[in-house]
Design a protein that fits this description.
Length: 338
C-alpha cells in the first residue's frame, strides 16, 4: 500500500484506506465524511455485500462509480448509468508499473508506445537490426557464433584478430563490417568502433535480437506499452536494497514479461539453466500473476530444465523457436496460457 500511495501521489491522486473491523460491519457510516468530497468508486473487485453498499451510497450522494474489464481494457460507468463501455489505453510504462509494487528500475535502452529510434541512436539501431538477423540464423551457424564469443573474449581493448575462418564465420564478420560496427586494419586484425559493439559479440546479440524482434512484431498492437533492454530492478527487503537484472522486459496490456537471454551455449548444463529459472520464478512470484518469466536460449535445453521450468510456469525457447515468441506472448496476453 505505501508504494501504491506514493505512485498515485505522482499522478495527483490521493488514496484513503478505510479499515473494517469485520466483514459484516456496516460501511455506509464510514463513507459519510466523504459526502462533500470529489470521490469515485471502483467496483471492479470486492465482496458482493460491500460493493453493493458502495454502489447504493454512491447513488444516494451522486458519486460516479465504474467497473473495469482489465482484460479488454473497457470501462463501464455504473453511475451515472452508461451502457456503452469506454475504451482505455494502457499508458503506464515499465517503470510506472514497477513503481506501483515498490520497485525502482533503470534500463539501458527502451522504446515506449509510439516511440521510434532517434537519429542519435544510430549505434543502438545497428545493433538491434543485426541482432534480429543473427537471432533468426539456423543452427548451422551455431559453431561460428560460439567462436565469435571466444574471439571477443581474447581481444585487447577494442582490437582483435582472426587467424583462420570457420565455416560461415566470414559471413558474420561481413555483417559487422556492413553495419559499420567493425573496421579492418589489415587482412587479419580489426577494431570495433565502440565498446558496446564488442560486447555485442560476446553474446549480447541475442538480447538485441530479442528486443528488436518483439518490438517489431508487437508495436502494432493497441495494447503495446513499453519494451526495455538491460533492465535493473532495485527493491527493499528487510532494510536492504536488493538488485536484480533482466535482459529484456516487455509490458503488454499491463502484463509484464521478463526475458533472460542465454547465448553462451552453456544453457544445456542443468546448473546454469536451473539458476536462471529460479531467478525468473522469484521475480515473477514477487510481481504477481500479471508477470511471466521466459528463458530464451540459442540451443535447446535438457528435459530436466524443461520440467523445472514447467513446474514454475516459466517458458523456454531454444534453438530457432525465437520466431514463435511474439505469437506466444500474444496468446498469453489475449487470455490463454501455453
Amino acid at each position: 500500500m505505501p508504494a501504491l500511495r506514493e505512485f498515485l501521489t505522482t499522478k495527483q491522486i490521493d488514496i484513503t484506506v478505510i479499515k473494517l473491523k469485520t466483514d459484516l460491519q456496516v460501511i455506509t457510516p464510514l463513507l459519510d465524511p466523504f459526502a462533500e468530497e470529489n470521490v469515485v468508486f471502483n467496483l471492479t473487485e470486492g465482496r458482493a455485500g460491500i460493493t453493493g453498499s458502495l454502489l447504493l451510497w454512491a447513488n444516494q450522494h451522486n458519486k460516479p462509480a465504474f467497473w473495469l474489464n482489465n482484460h479488454k481494457d473497457r470501462l463501464r460507468f455504473l453511475l451515472p448509468e452508461q451502457h456503452a463501455p469506454l475504451a482505455l489505453e494502457d499508458n503506464i510504462d515499465i517503470q510506472g508499473f514497477l513503481a506501483v509494487k515498490g520497485i525502482t528500475a533503470e534500463f539501458e535502452y527502451h522504446l515506449a508506445k509510439n516511440a521510434v529510434m532517434q537519429a542519435d541512436q544510430a549505434l543502438n539501431r545497428a545493433l538491434v537490426v543485426l541482432g534480429m538477423k543473427w537471432a533468426k540464423l539456423p543452427e548451422s551457424y551455431d559453431t561460428a557464433l560460439q567462436s565469435m564469443n571466444r574471439i571477443a573474449q581474447r581481444m585487447h581493448g577494442n582490437r582483435g584478430y582472426i587467424d583462420k575462418y570457420l565455416p560461415r564465420q566470414r559471413e558474420l564478420f561481413d555483417d559487422l563490417t556492413s553495419a559499420g560496427l567493425l573496421v579492418w586494419e589489415d587482412e587479419y586484425r580489426f577494431r570495433f568502433i565502440h565498446k558496446t559493439a564488442k560486447r555485442f559479440l560476446c553474446g549480447f546479440w541475442l538480447e538485441y535480437g530479442c528486443f528488436g524482434l518483439l518490438h517489431h512484431e508487437l508495436k502494432k498492437r493497441e495494447d503495446f506499452q513499453d519494451i526495455a533492454l538491460g533492465m535493473r530492478f532495485t527493491r527493499s527487503h528487510d532494510g536492504e536494497d536488493l538488485l536484480n537484472e533482466m535482459d529484456v522486459v516487455l509490458l503488454l496490456n499491463n502484463r509484464l514479461f521478463l526475458i533472460e537471454c542465454k547465448s553462451g551455449f552453456r544453457v544445456t548444463e542443468n546448473e546454469s539453466a536451473s539458476k536462471t529459472i529460479y531467478q525468473l520464478d522469484s521475480l515473477a512470484d514477487l510481481l504477481g500473476d500479471s508477470c511471466h518469466g521466459i528463458l530464451l536460449t540459442r540451443k535447446r535445453t535438457s528435459e530436466l530444465a524443461y520440467s523445472r521450468a514447467a513446474e514454475r510456469g516459466i517458458g523456454i525457447y531454444g534453438g530457432e523457436r525465437i520466431t514463435q515468441l511474439a505469437d506466444d506472448i500474444c496468446t498469453i496476453t489475449d487470455g490463454a496460457y501455453l
